[in-house]
């Protein structure tokens, strides 16, 4: 049986974003719990992950619960041993090295602050274990508490602090050790929305200040998009796509990525013609999905696609324009009926039902530039530029039957 | 809209009384089985007379001084034996509790049950069987003496070791259970956090696990030391004339000498001594700190 070739493109190796060799490398990392855990259906929690995380990068592992992102992070921290593959920290193989001897620190989702120690003692814990001189400990703890704006709380117990303050203690406790990389396991998950948003900016500021590699696990796509230099989208123990936020959002590689990040419209059909570079898009090969009745989707032609092959295309809601009349030329155009209009402040969201029964979401700005502001029941024409149609790679092959050699060799 | 307020008004007195009603059985229990006996004993200790002619309330405080002068040796010995047994229980019980809490996996309840299994046999019978086991020519010492490994006059019974050993044996679960409960409550993620912050096994234990288990140790020490110091069964069955504890004296005063005021005074002396010891212990350990961790 052919092993699943990952739909995701291989991690970016361009030296511009990852200067002197990656800080953290995962090479075909597998974690198999032996089938008695959640995710037993997949056989393994992590099924062969390759990642290169650059020095000083803010890197996010994004995915739904059970996708293997936390397991991956815990393997980097050393709390779980991979059942296959290698984990390199600055080129050094970490498999078999216990957590207390790894130069990374983890910020726990629950913070895991020591309840019997003061804030200052919590922060000093790692430095004391490393037998840093007393005076230096005092200075570094003091400076770190200033960085997280908790200098006046140094003598408090964790229990006496608010959730956001505890979160910053956890951050300070890890960062004060100046680790080669900081691992964060959904650190903002327990905070309310307002606090979470301000902490996102705060984290970003601290990361810029200390210049340490951050590996950030989250299931919140908005959080990942806001903070990350690059995002790895995970699903079912595999990485589906790695890239900068804009790329992951605008050019989703798979239907899963398109659906998980932001609102996405997916249209499927068979390729009508594989015309080469006709019309406006000179040079680029474009294809057409003929939806009948004058409706069509024009898309950049995926490699190796032939006429008649099935294709899925995604388009982001804000790329679609609404019009009263069908546009002409080689552009995407679909007719539909407005089923719902939701006013969102800066924009409005339209749910449009097409003749084929697909529901599409359209965002239009409320700044007066929209050509048409239809109401419920109106018939409208949807159109968008060819460049905004993204053909999706087929979904990754279903999980191989659980077995010792479940992961894909490559 | 008028119904909810009306209903609330009707329910309010009952709702307000409910907490008091719920603690009432506890208060009644304490009043009937603690406060009343203590008052009776207090009155008894301040009476004079004898069993034949009857005791009269004379508020004679001298009984306390006499009792202390006569039996202070046994009082101090009781505290020493109780303390020694408590230390033994801690040294044996902490590792047991630690093992059950962190290493026993899904069989925790089995091991806890095994720990409590001896309680299904009477306290006196268990202690008496130690008397058989440790007898001068019994199942352990007999063969050893026969083989010449021990001198013929070697004995364990009637020594402080036998009494302290018996106390430690009998009160071990009272140490293990509270320590276990405290260890069980330690968040495993704290152990991971310690490891993540470069603490090895020893540092993780010393800096995180041990401090967080101190409330359990505190409770275990109280639950062991107080009853062990006041015990008389172990000294009576496993001890000899030189190992008499204050509990034995009180028992003899009551049931053999029929000196009720003297026995009652000794009981209060024991209670007072234990309260002072516990208070000093709590002060030394920093109760507030201990209780603060316990209340987290």
From TrEMBL, chain A:
- Output the superkingdom of the source species: Bacteria
Q: What ranges does the record list as Low complexity composition bias?
A: 1-18
Question: Region (Disordered) spans which residues?
Answer: 1-21
Keywords for this protein? ATP-binding, Cell membrane, Membrane, Nucleotide-binding, Translocase, Transport
Limits of the ABC transporter domain: 24-261
Q: Could you say which EC number(s) this protein's record lists?
A: 7.6.2.11
Pfam families (alphabetical): ABC_tran (PF00005), TOBE_2 (PF08402)
Q: Does the keyword Ribonucleoprotein apply?
A: no
Q: Which CDD domains match?
A: ABC_PotA_N
Q: What class of enzyme is it?
A: translocase
A single GO molecular function term of this UniProt record = ATP binding
Which chemical reaction does it catalyze? ATP + H2O + polyamine-[polyamine-binding protein]Side 1 = ADP + phosphate + polyamineSide 2 + [polyamine-binding protein]Side 1
Q: PANTHER family from the entry?
A: SPERMIDINE/PUTRESCINE IMPORT ATP-BINDING PROTEIN POTA, SPERMIDINE_PUTRESCINE IMPORT ATP-BINDING PROTEIN POTA
Q: What does this protein do?
A: Part of the ABC transporter complex PotABCD involved in spermidine/putrescine import. Responsible for energy coupling to the transport system.
Which family does the similarity line name? Belongs to the ABC transporter superfamily. Spermidine/putrescine importer (TC 3.A.1.11.1) family.
What's the subunit arrangement here? The complex is composed of two ATP-binding proteins (PotA), two transmembrane proteins (PotB and PotC) and a solute-binding protein (PotD).
**Name of this protein:** Spermidine/putrescine import ATP-binding protein PotA
User: Which species does this protein come from?
Assistant: Streptomyces lichenis
- Corresponding gene? potA
From TrEMBL, chain B:
Which domain of life, per UniProt?
A: Bacteria
Record-linked InterPro entries: MetI-like, MetI-like_sf
User: Native species of this protein?
Assistant: Streptomyces lichenis
**Pfam families per UniProt:** BPD_transp_1
Residues passing through the membrane, by range: 21-46, 79-102, 109-125, 161-183, 204-226, 262-282
Where it sits in the cell: the answer is: Cell membrane
Which topology term describes how it sits in the membrane? Answer: Multi-pass membrane protein
Limits of the ABC transmembrane type-1 domain: 75-281
Q: Does the keyword Aminoacyl-tRNA synthetase apply?
A: no
Q: Which family does it belong to?
A: Belongs to the binding-protein-dependent transport system permease family. CysTW subfamily.
Q: What is this protein called?
A: ABC transporter permease
């Amino acid at each position: 049986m052919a092993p699943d070739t990952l739909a995701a493109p291989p991690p970016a190796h361009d030296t511009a974003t990852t200067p002197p060799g990656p800080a953290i490398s995962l090479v075909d990392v597998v974690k198999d719990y032996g089938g008695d855990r959640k995710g037993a259906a997949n056989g393994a929690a992590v099924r062969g992950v390759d990642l290169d995380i650059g020095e000083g990068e803010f890197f996010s592992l994004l995915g739904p619960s059970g996708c293997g992102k936390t397991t991956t992070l815990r393997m980097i921290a050393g709390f779980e041993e991979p059942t296959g593959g290698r984990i390199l920290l600055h080129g050094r193989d970490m498999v078999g090295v216990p957590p207390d001897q790894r130069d990374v620190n983890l910020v726990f989702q629950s913070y895991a602050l020591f309840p019997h120690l003061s804030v200052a003692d919590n922060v000093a814990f790692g430095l004391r274990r490393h037998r840093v001189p007393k005076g230096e400990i005092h200075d570094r703890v003091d400076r770190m508490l200033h960085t997280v704006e908790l200098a006046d709380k140094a003598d408090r117990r964790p229990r006496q602090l608010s959730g956001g303050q505890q979160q910053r203690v956890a951050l300070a406790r890890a960062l004060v050790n100046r680790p080669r990389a900081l691992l964060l396991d959904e650190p903002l998950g327990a905070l309310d929305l307002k606090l979470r948003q301000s902490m996102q900016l705060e984290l970003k500021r601290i990361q810029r200040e200390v210049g340490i590699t951050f590996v950030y696990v989250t299931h919140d796509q908005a959080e990942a998009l806001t903070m990350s230099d690059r995002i790895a989208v995970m699903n079912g123990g595999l990485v589906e796509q790695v890239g900068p936020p804009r790329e992951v959002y605008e050019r989703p590689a798979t239907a899963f990525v398109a659906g998980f990040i932001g609102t996405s419209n997916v249209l499927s059909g068979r390729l009508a013609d594989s015309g080469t570079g006709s019309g406006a898009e000179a040079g680029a090969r474009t294809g057409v999905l003929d939806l009948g009745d004058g409706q069509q989707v024009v898309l950049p032609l995926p490699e190796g696609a032939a006429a008649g092959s099935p294709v899925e295309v995604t388009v982001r809601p804000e790329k679609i324009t609404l019009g009263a009349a069908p546009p002409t030329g080689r552009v995407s155009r679909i007719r539909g009926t407005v089923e719902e209009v939701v006013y969102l402040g800066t924009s409005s969201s339209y749910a449009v039902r097409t003749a084929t029964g697909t529901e599409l979401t359209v965002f239009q700005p409320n700044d007066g530039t929209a050509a048409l502001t239809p109401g419920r029941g109106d018939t409208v024409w949807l159109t968008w530029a060819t460049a905004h149609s993204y053909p999706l790679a087929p979904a990754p092959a279903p999980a191989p039957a659980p077995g010792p050699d479940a992961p894909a060799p490559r | 809209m008028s119904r909810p307020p009306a209903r609330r008004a009707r329910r309010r007195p009952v709702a307000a009384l409910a907490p008091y009603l719920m603690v009432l059985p506890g208060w009644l229990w304490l009043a009937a089985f603690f406060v009343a006996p203590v008052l009776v004993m207090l009155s008894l200790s301040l009476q004079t007379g004898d069993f034949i002619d009857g005791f009269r309330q004379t508020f004679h405080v001298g009984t306390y001084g006499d009792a202390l002068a006569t039996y202070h040796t046994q009082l101090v010995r009781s505290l020493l034996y109780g303390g020694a047994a408590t230390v033994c229980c801690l040294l044996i019980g902490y590792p047991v509790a630690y093992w059950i809490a962190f290493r026993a996996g899904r069989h925790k309840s089995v091991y806890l049950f095994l720990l409590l299994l001896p309680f299904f046999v009477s306290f006196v019978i268990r202690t008496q069987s130690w008397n058989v086991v440790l007898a001068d020519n019994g199942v352990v010492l007999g063969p050893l003496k026969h083989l010449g490994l021990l001198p013929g006059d070697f004995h364990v019974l009637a020594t402080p070791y036998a009494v302290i050993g018996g106390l430690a044996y009998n009160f071990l679960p009272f140490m293990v259970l509270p320590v276990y409960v405290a260890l069980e409550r330690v968040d495993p993620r704290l152990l991971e956090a310690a490891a993540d912050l470069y603490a090895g096994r020893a540092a993780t234990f010393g800096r995180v696990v041990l401090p967080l288990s101190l409330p359990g140790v505190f409770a275990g020490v109280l639950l062991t030391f107080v009853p062990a110091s006041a015990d008389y069964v172990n000294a009576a069955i496993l001890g000899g004339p030189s190992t008499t504890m204050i509990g034995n004296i009180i028992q003899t005063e009551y049931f053999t000498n029929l000196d009720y005021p003297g026995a009652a005074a000794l009981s209060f002396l024991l209670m007072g001594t234990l309260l002072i010891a516990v208070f000093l212990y709590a002060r030394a350990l920093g109760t507030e700190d201990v209780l603060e961790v316990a209340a987290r």
